[in-house]
Amino acid sequence: MLPDDARCPCGSGDPYGGCCGRFHRGEPAPTPEALMRSRYTAFVVGDVAHLLATWDPAHRPAELVLDPGTQWLRLVVVRAEGGPFDDRGTVEFEAHHRTGGRRGVQHEVSGFARRDGAWVYVTGAPG
Length: 127
Ligand SMILES: [Zn+2]
Known about the structure:
By secondary structure, the protein is α+β, with helices and mostly antiparallel strands. Helix content is 20%, strand content 37%. The chain has helices spanning 20-24, 32-45, 48-53; strands at 70-81, 88-99, 102-115, 118-126. It binds zinc ion (ZN). Zinc ion is lined by residues 8, 10, 12, 19-20, 37, 41.
């Protein structure tokens, strides 16, 4: 876990506790971008429970094991659509990482939907 006053790994510039940390504690994210950021940060801090809880049950894997050899370095949100009054949204992002000593970028367009008032991650496609 990360201290609440640490800089949030999602790159917002805000402290973790007031940024992705509150969504990791169960507060619903207001927008697809906020949820996507909290999911990226969950990869950084190893919060598998948050990843599974915010995954559309129809697409969620039965179990999720994070690769300990991947270090997430930086998130860039390229484009985000969907707000408090929508029930679908998309977020295009680049997640920079280092895996096995080599740097890489995961470029993805993620789809989100609102289920029972809460945003969930549905699927992703290469960006
Ligand atoms: Zn954050």
